[in-house]
Amino acid sequence: MESFELLMHGFSVALTPTNLLAVFIGVFLGQVIGALPGIGPSLGMALLLPISFGLPSVTAIVLLCGIMYGAMYGGTLTSVLINVPGESSGIMTTLEGYKLARKGRGGAALCMAAIGSFIGGTGTIFFLMFATVWISEFALHFGPPEYFLLAALGITATASMGEGSTTKALFVAVIGLMIALVGTDPILGTERLTFGNEDLIDGIDFLPIAIGVFGIAEVLVSIESLVDLEPMKTKLRDMWPRWKDWVQCRMAILRGTGIGFGLGLLPGVGPTASTFIAYAVERRFSKKPEDFGHGSLDAVASVETANNSAVVGSLVPMLTLGIPGSGLTAVLLAAFTLQGIRPGPLLMTSQPDLVWGLIASMFIGNLMLLVLNLPLAPFFASLLRVPYAYLAPGILMLSLVGAYATDLRLFTVGMSVLFGVIGYFMIKARLPRAPLILGIVLAPILESSLRQTMILSHGSLNIFVERPLALVLVVVVLLSLVLPSAGRIWRFVRGGRAGDEGKVNMPAQ
After folding, report:
1. Is the whole-model pTM more than 0.70?
2. Most CB atoms within 10 A, among 7, 123, 173, 309?
C-alpha cells in the first residue's frame, strides 16, 4: 500500500505542466534520435546534458530518461523500413522486420513493436517499483565467472541464428570476436592488431559495422535485381496486425519482458545483448521457427520488448547502488551528478520526489509513445510503396551519414563501406550476418570477465564449477551447444524411420 501511495505522489510530481512537457519533449526527441543511424540515445542524452544543468532536478532527469526509452522506439523505424539499425539494439529487429516490410507487413511489424515496447516498458516499471532492492541483491551475486558464462551463452546461442549450418553461424561469431580484439588491451592498455594505424587504437565500433553489413550490403544486393523490386502494393488494412498475430506474439512479448528486464539488471549487459538472447530464446520456443530469418513477427515482438525492458532493468542498479547498468544509465548517472545527487541505497528515502516522479513519468512517457506510434505505423510502412530505385540512394546516404555521426571521422565511413562489401559477399555465400555483430558486442564482456576470473582463481578453471550460479550457467552453455545438433540428429533418425516404414508398408503393385 505504501508503494501505491508513493506512486500516486510521483504522478502528482510528473503531471505538473513543466515535467509533463519535459516528458513529451524527451520521448519525441528520443524517437528522432533513435531513428537516425549513428547518433543513438547515449550521444543524444550526452548532447543535452548542458541544457539539463539549468533545469530543476526532476525536470532534467525525466527529460533525459524520456530520450533514453524514446530512442528504443525510434530505432524500430529505420530497422523495419530500410534495413538500417538506428541504434545497436535494433540489429535483430533489422534481421526480421525488413523482410516483413518487403512482404507488405511493415505496418504490422511497427505496430507489434510498439505494443511490445509499451507492455515491456510499463510492465517492468512495476518490477522496478516493488522488487528493486531484492533484485539488486541478486544481481550482486554475479561476478566475473558468471559474466563470462553469460557472454559465452550469447555466443553459443548464435547456433540458433544461422539459416542453415550451425557451424557457419559459430564461425561468423568467432570472426566477430577477432574483429573486437583490434584496438587497446582493456587491462594492460597496450595496442594490439592496430598495425601502427592510429585510427584503430580505439578499436572498430560495432554500429558502423552493423550499418555496413545490414544497410549497405542489402542495397548492393538489391541493386543487382532492381527490376524485380516492385514497390509495395498493399491495402491499408493489411498493414495492421491481425487477431492471429496478437495470439501468436503474446508469449513472445512476455518472454521478451522477462529476458530484457533480467539481463538489464546486470551491469554491462545492456539492451543490445538482451535482444540477441531474446531472439535466440524465441526461436527455440516459437511455433513457427521456420519463419526466423525470413520475416518473423513474434521475433520482432520479442526483441523490441526485450530492449525496452532492459532499459528499465538497467535503472535498478543505478538507482539503488549507483552502478550504471549500461552506457545509457552511465550518461544518466552523469546527469544525477550534475544535479548534485548521488544515487544509492538512501536515494528513495532522501529524494522521494525525484525517484517516484521519475517512475511515474515513465508510465506517462510510454503511453505517449504508444499514442504517437500506433496511428502512424501504417503511414510509415506506406513509404515502401515508393519504387526502390528512388529509395536506394537515400538509404545509402543515410547509412554513410549515420556512420560518420558515430565519431565524426571519414575513416569510420570507409569502414562501413568496407563491411558493406563484406556483408554483400556474406549474403552471396549464405553466411548469417547477425552472429558477426553479436561477437563484436559481447567480446568486451567475454574478454574482460575471463581475464578477471583467471586472476581471481590464479589460473584455475575450477572456479566455474565451485560457484553454484556459475555451474548452472556452464550447464546451460553446454546444452546450447548440444541441443541444436541433437535436434538435427533426432529429426534425421525420425525421417529415416518414416522412410523405412513407408517402404515396408508400400502396397504391392
Report:
1. no
2. 309
